[in-house]
Design goal:
By secondary structure, this protein is an alpha+beta fold. The protein has helices at 13-25, 68-78, 89-120, 126-146, 160-172, 176-182, 186-196, 199-203, and strands spanning 5-8, 30-33, 57-60, 63-66. The protein has 2 domains: 5-78, 3-Layer(aba) Sandwich (Glutaredoxin); 89-203, Glutathione S-transferase Yfyf (Class Pi), Chain A, domain 2 (Up-down Bundle). A 4-stranded mixed sheet has the order 2-1-3-4, covered by helices on one side. α1 packs across α5 and α3 (89-120) runs parallel beside α5.
Length: 208
Amino acid sequence: MGRPIVYGANYSVYVRIVRLVLAEKGIDYELVPVDVFATEGIPAWYFQHHPFGRIPAFEHDGFRLFETSAIARYVDEVFAGPALQPTDARARATMNQIIGMLDAYAYRSMVWDVAVERLKKEAPDERLIASGLSQASKALQTLSSLKAPGPWLLGDGLTLADLHAAPIIAYFVKVAEGQGLLAEFPEIQAWWTRIAGRASFLRTEKTE
């Protein structure tokens, strides 16, 4: 099989999720830079890969995909390497529930309303940050309640849920409020410490 291509920017949470999955599977790939925030706008050619101009997009042997979860599942199912999805239907459903919850309720609040607002704005909107922290607290509480006993979110085996959560939490803990809130959930804090030291996570901190 040919070398897959990931289109996107190494600062993106969702691009990093895909890169983490590829790293865990031991797959070499090409990262083609696409900066959706560039002053000149999104390159016209990129809309052939993603009709909505978001990142990431993915290509493998002429087969194109967009949407992070679809890409992650494809990589896990097509390439050799450790399986990243449970075989048990209920465990797999819980994995998908965690991923859906993170997308719907955690990403915006943790990354944009708290981390980006605090780090990137000269005059941060404190009301937005407070609202984001409230939503983030509920997301962390839910994640803690869904976590199975063991080192990873679904127990003994690393899954796509872990790789989806890690880049979101990584942004959140760039700010003091995120660090403080995470510390209120010891099981998730321990999980974060564990995955933050993982080789794939350290490797995807830099452009490959």
